[in-house]
């Protein structure tokens, strides 16, 4: 007799930032359909990616069995093998490489992907740490520039609770498209509530984004990579027209006088006027001045800069300039204000303790000195080590090794939770580097661009096929219930590492079951764990949180964790580093591959690579329902398209010295002239000539980090021609 259909709430986690709530219906061990949250308010309603997840689970191209490469690296030719053979191969290769070259020759590449509180990237860090160590990464692709700026200025990172924007009389959304990226479940809804309540929205962006279309009272287009100049010119207006909050600056900040000297031109003889910024940004001087006056005189006001403009060369300066402008208006630590950070806050949701498996420390890290250009703060302690590789430097490190000044000669890669080749700059260099390695093992769910280069593929199950929990920006906590058995022979992160530990002779890797870990991890955040499992969600409906509220309300007892105990407009930590192009006060530094670079004669178009409605980074790119939603196309302004004879739908060549892609064009007024948008995340798919036909933006991007670690994804010059 067939069983009755049952429904369960399940928290999602695809590294999109949403952690939305799905309602999955199960019958006879199969997911029959999915809906969104229909429970108590606030409802954590999900996006189209979540609603297509059933097609992802049952996709015909999902990896279900361990595989061994039988063709050339990158061909994607594999044969099925047993788990025993796969694990034995990985264990023996780790042992061979670490004994021959040292454990630092093993690189662990990872990122977000599907990441819960138990099943995540830390399971493998513990495994390799117990086995002898490995080389780890630093340089978060999404927000390393923002993290660096937060550490230098505030001492720790914080974001704005989306529920608090309704208290703002003015909200300036800078380079952010929350309607599409869903960086926090419910963000769009709460922005809509704020709009209805009378909040004025101004959007600054090279694109007329969906967010601008839905919310903006004013759209201000800007050239990519010039955002810091606009913010600094706004500071000039506030200073010269006496519109800034001197009492706030005197009480809570350190070093404003030095910044003031730079802004007024006393330092370098160049006043940072709106006219100065107009020549750089393309924004009319009057518009910059009017925006400065409106922001300075409207209380409370929220400056909400996205991490996206910070993903540029010298992107750290953009973030620090935004923090400084927020301090100049006194909008920090109050409801309706903002410290100059985007909407990333999870409110006052109790935080789970995360996977608490003790590693004893990674031996490779333990033997490494610190980088001279790293901030001496707690957050940067690990990434500040010389042994760590910045994510933009991995492929150079593989190709050059010790001879190129790197810490080791790298021979093996293990990857999990990342389609690395696709999602980091300079794909063609990455192809060359991956082909040079002695061994590659990859945990994956699909035959991604990176998976094709593996020697051994280990199939990972989805979050519907094991138990876990997620910490979301509803704010909420959500349970991930195992509602179906793992398809094929796929396994969870923890199960794979348990089995690998046994093969590697590690006897003390794990002493708890999945459920025991989960109950321990959630204890600080959930009062009644059994009830949490039953309901599937814990929603928090209290007052919106305010970042740095305690530091502003009671600075004597809650100083900022900076050397001065204040908001550091002049960063003493940066000043002590004395690294070129990393100034101690926020400054505008022209990016490489800007419109003034001599390279513009050859490659006259600036390319940005934005987030896409149908994908979470590279996840979901192969899902048919979502591919119907929107075409992967290069968005180009008519003023650039017409002289090239390009019409919407035409295939175009987008190219530079690093590579070439062929992609359909979308001719639109929704992007400014001189700029093209190739959405990031499309899977690299080269033809016989090495020309990418998948529309992978990173074929074109440059693999050079910004001084503070920012990823320069949006600093790129290209040429566009009709194919």
Structure summarized in a few sentences:
The chain is α/β, with parallel strands linked by helices and 723 residues long. The N and C termini lie far apart (59 Å).
Write the layout of secondary structure elements.
Layout (H helix, E strand, L loop, with lengths): L5 E6 L9 E7 L2 E7 L11 H4 L1 H5 L9 E3 L8 E3 L2 H19 L4 E5 L11 H10 L5 E2 L5 H10 L16 E5 L3 H4 L5 H11 L2 E5 L5 H6 L2 E3 L6 H14 L5 H7 E2 L1 H9 L9 H8 L3 H13 L3 E5 L9 H14 L34 H4 L22 E2 L3 H7 L11 E5 L3 H4 L3 H10 L2 E6 L11 E4 L8 E5 L3 E5 L12 H11 L10 H9 L6 H7 L1 E3 L9 H5 L13 E2 L3 H6 L27 E4 L15 H4 L6 E3 L1 H4 L9 E6 L2 E9 L7 E3 L39 E6 L1
Parallel strand pairs: 6-14, 7-13, 8-9, 8-12, 9-10, 11-20, 14-15, 15-16, 21-25, 22-24
Antiparallel strand pairs: 1-2, 2-3, 4-5, 4-16, 17-18, 18-19, 21-26, 22-25, 23-24, 23-26
Helix pairs in contact: 3-19, 4-19, 5-14, 9-12, 9-13, 9-14, 12-13, 16-18
Question: What's the CATH first level of one domain?
Answer: Alpha Beta
Helical amount among residues, as a percent range?
A: 25-40%
CATH H-level superfamily of one domain: Dimethylsulfoxide Reductase, domain 2
Determine the N-to-C terminus distance: 59 Å
Q: What radius of gyration results from the CA coordinates? A: 25 Å
Write down the CATH topology of one domain. Answer: Dimethylsulfoxide Reductase, domain 2
Structural class: alpha/beta
Main-sheet strand order equals 5-4-16-15-14-6
């Amino acid at each position: 007799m067939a069983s009755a259909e049952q429904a369960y709430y399940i928290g999602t986690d695809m590294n999109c930032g949403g952690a939305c709530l799905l309602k999955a219906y199960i019958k006879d061990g199969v997911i029959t359909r999915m809906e969104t949250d229909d429970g108590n308010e606030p409802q954590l309603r999900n996006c189209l990616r979540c609603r297509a997840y059933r097609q992802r689970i049952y996709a015909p191209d999902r990896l279900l069995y361990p595989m061994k490469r039988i063709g050339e690296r990158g061909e994607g030719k594999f044969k099925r093998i047993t788990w025993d053979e796969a694990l034995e191969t990985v264990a023996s290769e780790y042992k061979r490489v670490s004994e021959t070259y040292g454990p630092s020759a093993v690189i662990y590449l990872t990122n977000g992907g599907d990441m819960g509180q138990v099943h995540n990237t830390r399971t493998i860090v513990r495994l390799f740490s117990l086995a002898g160590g490995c080389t780890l990464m630093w340089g978060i692709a999404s927000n390393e520039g923002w993290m660096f700026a937060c550490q230098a200025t505030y001492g720790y990172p914080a974001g704005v609770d989306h529920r608090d924007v309704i208290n703002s009389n003015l909200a300036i959304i800078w380079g952010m498209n929350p309607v599409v990226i869903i960086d926090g479940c419910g963000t769009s809804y709460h922005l809509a509530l704020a709009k209805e309540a009378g909040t004025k929205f101004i959007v600054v962006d090279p694109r007329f984004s969906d967010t601008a279309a839905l919310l903006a009272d004013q759209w201000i287009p800007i050239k990519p990579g010039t955002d810091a100049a606009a913010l600094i010119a706004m500071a000039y207006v506030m200073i010269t027209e006496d519109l800034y909050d001197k009492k706030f600056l005197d009480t809570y900040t350190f070093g404003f006088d030095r910044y003031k000297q730079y802004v007024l031109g006393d330092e370098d003889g160049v006043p940072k006027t709106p006219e100065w910024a107009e020549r750089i940004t393309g924004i009319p001087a009057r518009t910059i001045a009017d925006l400065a006056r409106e922001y300075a005189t409207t209380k409370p006001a929220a400056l909400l800069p996205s991490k996206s403009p910070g993903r540029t060369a010298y992107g750290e300066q953009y973030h620090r300039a935004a923090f400084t402008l927020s301090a100049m208006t006194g909008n920090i630590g109050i409801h309706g204000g903002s410290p100059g950070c985007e909407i990333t806050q999870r409110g006052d949701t109790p935080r789970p303790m995360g996977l608490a498996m003790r590693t004893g420390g990674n031996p490779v890290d333990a033997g490494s000195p610190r980088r001279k250009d790293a901030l001496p703060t707690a957050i940067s302690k690990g990434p500040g080590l010389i042994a760590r590789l910045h994510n933009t430097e991995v492929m150079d490190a593989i190709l050059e090794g010790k001879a190129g000044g790197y810490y080791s000669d790298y021979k093996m890669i293990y990857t999990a939770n990342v389609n690395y080749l696709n999602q980091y700059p300079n794909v063609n260099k990455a192809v060359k580097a991956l082909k040079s390695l002695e061994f590659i093992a990859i945990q994956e769910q699909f035959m991604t661009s990176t998976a094709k280069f593996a020697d051994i593929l280990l199939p990972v199950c989805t979050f519907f096929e094991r138990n876990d929990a997620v910490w979301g920006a509803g704010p909420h906590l959500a349970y991930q219930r195992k509602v179906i058995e793992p398809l094929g022979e796929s396994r969870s992160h923890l199960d794979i590492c348990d089995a690998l530990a046994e093969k590697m002779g590690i006897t003390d890797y794990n002493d708890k079951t999945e459920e025991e870990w989960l109950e321990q991890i959630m204890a600080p955040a959930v009062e009644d764990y059994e009830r949490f499992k039953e309901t599937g969600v814990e929603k928090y409906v209290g007052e919106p949180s305010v970042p740095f509220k305690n530091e502003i309300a009671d600075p004597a007892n809650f100083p900022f964790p900076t050397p001065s105990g204040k908001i550091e407009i002049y960063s003493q930590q940066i000043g002590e580093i004395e690294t070129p192009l990393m100034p101690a006060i926020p400054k505008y530094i022209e990016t490489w591959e800007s419109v003034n670079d001599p390279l513009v004669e050859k490659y006259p178009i600036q390319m940005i690579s934005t987030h896409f409605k149908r994908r979470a980074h590279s996840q979901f790119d192969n899902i048919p329902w979502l591919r119907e939603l929107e075409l992967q196309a290069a968005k180009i302004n008519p003023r650039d398209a017409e002289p090239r004879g390009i019409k919407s739908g035409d295939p175009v060549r987008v190219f530079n010295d690093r590579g070439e892609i062929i992609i359909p064009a979308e001719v639109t007024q929704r992007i400014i002239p001189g700029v093209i948008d190739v959405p990031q995340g499309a899977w690299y798919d080269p033809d016989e000539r090495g020309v990418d036909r998948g529309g992978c933006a990173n074929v074109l991007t440059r693999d050079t980090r910004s001084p503070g670690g920012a990823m320069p994804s949006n600093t790129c010059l290209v040429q566009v021609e009709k194919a």
